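Please, structure for the following, as tokens.
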Amino acid sequence: MSPERAGPGTDWAALLALIRDAFAAMDGRIDPPSSMHALTAGAIAEQAAAGEVWLIAEAGQPVACVFLTVRPGRLYLGKLAVAASHRGHGLARRLVDTAAARARALGLPALELQTRVELTENHATFRALGFTEVGATAHPGYDRPTSLTFRRPVTAE
């Protein structure tokens, strides 16, 4: 199973279902609630057109995905999701490696992502994937950090 770039013909509703299923465990754990609740299939298609969406599929169904967005000096990873049935098989690593290859191709020196403060298991996963915590931010209306920012340098191959 290799990552492929989403485009015309992609089942956006299936990608939305994957993200909702993969992020469901966050409900009740994070405050404020995840932005995935406002995500639509159309918004995923727009992300694929304005940035990039990469997915890994098995038997024609997406089992992992990531959104990539160019930001000044870095490639931002969003909505990294792996189906519960496929966790522990290196799919997140494959998607992060794909993001690193895209960053190199775009001349960007770093990958960046954010994860919620409460999701300590995600912090450990991202550290294992070579990311370092570089900051914290608060959602509007919050007087405490709600998200942590992680960055990973992109090395030449």
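The chain has a mean pLDDT of 95. DSSP finds four helices and seven strands in the chain.
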